[in-house]
Amino acid sequence: MSATARDARSLRHGRHWARRLALQALYQWDLAHSSPAELLGQFTEDENWPRVDAGYFQELVRGVIAQAAELDAQLVPCLDRPMEAVDPVERAVLRIAAYELRHRLDVPFRVVIEEAVNLAKKFGAEGGYRFVNGVLDRLARRLRPFETSGR
Q1: Which CATH architecture has domain 3-148?
Q2: Which of 18, 20, 127, 130 could be a cystine partner for 56, CB 3.0 to 4.6 Å?
């Protein structure tokens, strides 16, 4: 494996773990209203922290918390229920993915959706990943028409 391929794999792996811990942090924020500083401090103590792309984790947590209302406003037209009725794990997954679709154009929309679906499969309600997939497919078409139109 070339150094470039190894670096790309390491980046993907670190971002995967960043999303995973960000999901847990944002779930906690949504239910307990912990501050971003508390969350960032707490999750750096997680046993999986060495695997995490720390900068990406911090960006996701801070960005989603700071822009939760705007992210929700973009998600609502893609939902079949009020945001408050969405399972808290799925709500956190959707917010992370919405943030990435809006602000991380370097991450292909298919990667954003695949990562979100995998998180929903692992941590969400049974079958919740189907809901996440449908919502994010609609959102990606709205936020990234230049990228989704050719599929």
Answers
A1: Orthogonal Bundle (1.10)
A2: 18
